[in-house]
């Protein structure tokens, strides 16, 4: 790789990071698409971490907050975090620090979707609502709490 291409890739990474936070894994993938060498990618991302352009803790906190705002449960957050390359122990630490009430979040998600519907449900409607909350990543206990509170 020549110096011109290296500088172009460095500018590309800085441009990406200027728009939003990225995990190291996401940036590695983007640079691999641009056909950068593995050695160059490692050096560039180490440089970015050294200058605090990439911070996995900060990225993870933003990721979790975004999903909480969308009323997603822990299972959904964990699943999507694996796809983004977030370390599981880091994710658990961030979730613990935020002290999230998953039962209340499940109730909020349920009320957002079903606040204007009748409370008496047949089996089919109840199953549909349970599937909706399960897709959003809540446990059975949290779903039961959310549905009982209506």
From TrEMBL:
Instruction: Keywords in alphabetical order, please.
Output: Cytoplasm
Superkingdom of the organism of origin:
Bacteria
Q: Which Pfam families match?
A: RecX_HTH1, RecX_HTH3
Main location per UniProt? cytoplasm
Subcellular compartments: Cytoplasm
Residue ranges constituting the RecX first three-helical domain according to the UniProt record: 10-48
Q: Where is the RecX third three-helical domain?
A: 99-147
What is the protein's known function? Answer: Modulates RecA activity.
Q: What is this protein called?
A: Regulatory protein RecX
Q: Give the lineage.
A: Bacteria, Pseudomonadati, Pseudomonadota, Gammaproteobacteria, Alteromonadales
């Amino acid at each position: 790789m020549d110096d011109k291409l290296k500088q172009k890739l460095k500018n590309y990474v800085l441009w990406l990071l200027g728009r939003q936070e990225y995990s190291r894994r996401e940036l590695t993938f983007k640079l691999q698409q641009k056909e950068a060498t593995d050695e160059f990618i490692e050096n560039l991302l180490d440089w970015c971490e050294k200058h605090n352009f990439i911070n996995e803790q900060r990225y993870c906190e933003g990721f979790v907050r975004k999903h909480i705002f969308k009323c997603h449960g822990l299972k959904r957050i964990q699943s999507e975090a694996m796809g983004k390359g977030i370390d599981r122990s880091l994710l658990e630490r961030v979730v613990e620090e935020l002290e999230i009430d998953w039962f209340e979040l499940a109730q909020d998600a349920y009320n957002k979707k079903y606040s204007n519907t009748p409370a008496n449900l047949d089996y089919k409607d109840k199953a549909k609502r349970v599937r909706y909350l399960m897709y959003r990543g809540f446990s059975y206990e949290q779903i039961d709490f959310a549905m009982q509170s209506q």
